[in-house]
Amino acid sequence: xxxxxxxxxxxxxxxxRSGPPGVGLDVSGTGYLGCRNVYVFFDGTRVGTLQPxxxxxxxxxxxxxxxxxAPGQHVVTTSCAPSGDxxxxxxxxxxxxxxxxxxxxxxxxxxxxxxxxxxRALATSAIAAVAFILLFAFPYELFNxxxxxxxxxIRHWFRLPARAVAATAHGRRRTVGFFVxxxxxxxxxxxxxxxxGWNRNSGVLLVGMFAALLVMSVVFSLPASIAIYRRFGExxxxxxxxxxxxxxxxxVVISRALDFRPGYFYGAMAGLAFTSALSEDSVGRVTAANWxxxxxxxxGAFLARAPVADAAAQPGASVWWIGLEACLVLIFLWxxxxxxVAMLPMRFLDGKKxxxxxxxxxxxxxxxGVFATVHVLFSPNSGYVGQxxxxxxxxxxxxxxxxxxxxxxxxxxxxxxxxxxxxxxx
Length: 426
Description:
Blueprint: E1 9-11, E2 18-19, E3 24-29, E4 38-42, E5 45-50, E6 58-64, E7 72-79, E8 87-95, H1 104-107, H2 119-149, H3 151-157, H4 171-190, H5 200-219, H6 222-232, E9 237-240, H7 242-257, E10 270-273, H8 280-312, H9 319-342, H10 350-357, H11 359-377, H12 389-416
Parallel strand pairs: 2-8
Antiparallel strand pairs: 1-3, 3-6, 4-5, 4-7, 7-8, 9-10
Helix pairs in contact: 2-11, 2-12, 4-5, 4-7, 5-9, 6-8, 8-9, 8-10, 8-11, 9-11, 10-11
């Protein structure tokens, strides 16, 4: 006797087959015997992964309608293949219009109960993290050391003028600039969400992100602030590095170009600046402490998001829950993604300070940052939203190979050229 066909049903947390963009989805169905995992798709975009029980039935919550879904009828499908090609069952869901709802930036990040902690998934992410370090960190270190050794000559290639010492702003001007630049960084981060624009919903997202940036600017540097205050009695002043805003914009553009969601956001380099001088070892130590603390805060934000997401995913959720979830999501993403980037052993990045102080501490921090990024955003069983995960992996791998080739080529040029360049007389 042939097995009955598979079924699927998708409802919002209140039991209706309708809801605004970003609303939660409770998915159930039968007929999935023989499937190791059942992948759930919303209009062809994967929104989660469920595991069938012994009878072949699936049930699970915590999934979400993508935040950029347009009002109207949409299709929920299931498949035993990650690609979703072989559709097993289909259901309809009506997306209703709402002035304020969860954005695509938020719904793209899996919730804690969607992350796989089985040994195979953890080992896969660990191997990917080690490969990232070998393919990315080593070329960066080679590139960085080559540039440092030949910095004046490289500047001469581009006919760059001598570097000038910039004046430092003080008092009210510095404070106003700090808040304005953080606001600009929040606007840039908002464009990680495809539905970001001139509307009330984007305003709520912007406020949540701006609050997250302010929190991160001060809270993430607490270990260094406490150490310097105890030693010198200095409390520090608000500081923002404008150049980091350009890096953040480039990251957002790359994320949108690759359709990578929730996206890669390096964050704004803002915090507390100090005039007290520290030794090189002390700088490396407090920098490592800052990033270790930031990782703890990021994980705390990720776990705290679970009850907030449950409230924000309800039909007609309060604007406060929606904004708070956006804030927690950005804190988590900034923590793990920025740790991975900041620990690159490149000139002017924190990784160079830490690796100079202690290579073991640097290795641990870099590995944790890359591992968390890979496991949460790229694991096939994490519920990561998006169809382009494979394409993103290929694009990133190509970028790694290109940068590695450039690094080796630059090193080889300076290593084997017939004569050294001499700076022109003053």
